[in-house]
Amino acid sequence: MRVKLKREHPGAIQAHGEATYPNECCGLMLGRLVQGDKHILELLPAENARKESDRHNRFLISPRTMFEAEKRARENGMDVLGFYHSHPNAEARPSRFDLDHAWPFYSYLIVSVSQGRAGAMTCWRLADDRSRFSPEEIEAG
Ligand SMILES: [Zn+2]
Asked: Where exactly are the structural domains of the chain?
């Protein structure tokens, strides 16, 4: 299963990560499942709902934001297919926290932001037994 982003999505995610640096940015990825691939059609930047002292290495999307995103997706024939967030001064690999808080099905895209500059981007999906993440291929354009 691949995650297909629109041409402008990687730049938008990187810009979001740089804007919130040194805190984590987060957002939702809306789109459609097409023959097992996730076609991302729209990004919904979200506010990091963690308390300020935790925002440098944690993110939280509030239930209200999730609800509104689900509604917006449904009204436009889409689904919430995943989430993106940044890792300020850390690699684009899921943390233990990410693993503990991940749900099945969704894609988790991570962008590394080092010294304020966004870099590598990776995508992950929880394995069926929930013990680890499996990498997902990102395609843009
Ligand atoms: Zn993370």
From this structure: 2-140
What pTM value is reported for the model?
0.96
**134 with 127: CB under 8 angstroms?**
yes
* Residue 1 reports pLDDT greater than 90: no
Q: Give 85 Cα–ligand 1 centroid separation in angstroms.
A: 7
Say what the pLDDT of residue 78 is. Answer: 98
The mean pLDDT of 4-12, rounded to a whole number, is: 98
Phi, psi of 64 (to 5 degrees): -65, -45
Rounded distance from Cα 57 to ligand 1 centre (Å): 7
CA of 36 to the centre of ligand 1 (A): 25
33-75 pLDDT, tens digit each = 999 999 999 999 999 999 999 999 999 999 999 999 999 999 9
Q: How far is CA 136 from CA 42, 47, 63, 68, 110, in A?
A: 19, 25, 26, 26, 11
Q: Which listed CATH number (3.30.420.10, 3.40.47.10, 3.30.365.10, 3.40.140.10) goes with 2-140?
A: 3.40.140.10
